Amino acid sequence: MAQWKINFGSVTKNYKIMKVYKFGGASVKDADGVRNLAKIVKNHSNLVVVVSAMGKTTNMLEKVTENYFFNGDANIQELKDFHYNISKDLFESNHPIFDEINNLFVEIEWAIEDKPTSTYSFEYDQIVSVGELLSTKIVGAFLRQEGLNVNWKDARDFIRTDNCYRNARVDWDLTKNLVSKTFTDDCIYLTQGFIGCTSENFTTTLGREGSDFSAAILAFALDAQEVVIWKDVPGFLNADPVYFEATDLLEKIPYSEAIELTYFGAKVVHPRTIQPLKAKSIPLKVKSFVDPDSQGSEIGDFDEITPFVPSYILKPNQMLLSLSTKDLSFIIEEHISHIFSLFAQNNIAVNMMQNSALSFSVCFDNDSIKTKPLIEKLSQDYSLFYNTDLTLYTIRHYNAESVAKVKQGKEVLLEQKSRNNIQIVVNH
User: Fold this and answer.
1) Helices 77-90 and 31-41 sit at what angle, rounded to 10 degrees?
2) What is the DSSP secondary structure assignment for residue 253, as one 8-state letter?
3) What is the pTM of this model?
4) One domain for residues 54 and 200
5) Does the residue 236 lie in any domain?
């Protein structure tokens, strides 16, 4: 096994040259995607592969959870059909993987047979987390069928978190200790993104799209050589090609720039991914699983972003909430502190805010599960006015042309500008 030997005085430490690969749901959305993953990893050893739920599995499981919790009626047949169809394309009918898949579906069925016993967020994590277990069971079975030396690991055995369900915080010391004891062999390790576990052995999730963060956690704990995130795009683009016709590939991105872009909502990488990698100067590459040999993008210790162009970040499904005191007194620090405490209690992140003497306006993701109790609580003390179904645009390194491009044909409700960024809330 390849190792670095680093001497610190009289102490010698051995560091494995390990890489971490992360594959998202789009990369394993069908049987051909699983086959392609196998081609990418087949010539590697000493590799950790982190895999998300297949395709739109998380969306399906979220719907199951909502129906179970709020309506008392949930059906998982669509979920079953999706995974069985992929598996039938990859394996013979007598392959043991079908029993493993069935056992996971039984776990969901047992969970939704009884009435909820806890909060929505708790039930969400116990049900939605099964998506990653399903995908890694299928991928692992196929990799072994292809002759690869694969060691499947349950992420809940080594990623320890608190009990902040749907957005759990990592216990870094305990996690690092457990990871160092788990990943010791020269092989391909396969594990799940997105999920962790509390000290009471309850499953947690790390936030939507949290598989990137899982890869960073493992890289940090293992002192990995690099992390590669495999996407259905050429790399880290300056705009989402779903919404923008012309895009530029960002070839080299400083850690600080990546943190800014992901903080504002760039979907290529999860916001919490960058900091643990920066702490150990571990490079993060974003590459295309469609064209694995292409250049892609690299996030690392660079002085400036290359090329230097405006970056566009779009966040749909926004709520713009404006509130004022009922007696029309000034909005002062005491009020703002109270408002932010309610946002924190409901686990809602603020995307943009602005205040005047008599009002405070805030823009955030309109998650109905979280938003409803927030509105109910705020309305007790404040007069409220809000708009929904809005879009928040952020332009980093903006110029006049880029701002005009975003505003064209749209109603601007709120705008905020700084040296490097401009944020615009629009109603289409």
Assistant:
1) 50
2) E
3) 0.88
4) yes
5) no
Structural domain of 319: 311-427
Which residues, 6+ apart, have CB-to-CB distance to 265 below 8 Å?
A: 313, 314, 315, 351, 392, 394
Structure tokens at 47: 């590799």
Q: Which two tokens stand for residue 144?
A: 């072994």
Interatomic CA distance for residues 189 and 139, integer angstroms: 12
Q: Give 251-298 pLDDT, tens digit per residue.
A: 999 999 999 999 999 988 988 999 999 999 999 999 999 999 999 999
C-alpha torsion 241→244→249→250, nearest 10 = -110
Residues 18 and 118 in one domain: yes
Per DSSP, 115 falls in state: P
Maximal C-alpha separation, the chain: 72
- Picking from 58, 53, 191, the residue whose alpha carbon sits closest to that of residue 135 is 53
DSSP tally for the chain: helices H, then strands E? 13, 18
| Residue 407, both tokens | 């505003």
Contact of 413 with 427, CB cutoff 8 Å = yes
CA distances from 52 to 8, 259, 294, 362, 417 (A): 38, 22, 23, 32, 36
What φ, ψ does residue 422 adopt, rounded to 5°? Answer: -130, 135
| Calpha distance 365→248 (Å, rounded) | 27
Strand partners, 50: 22, 191
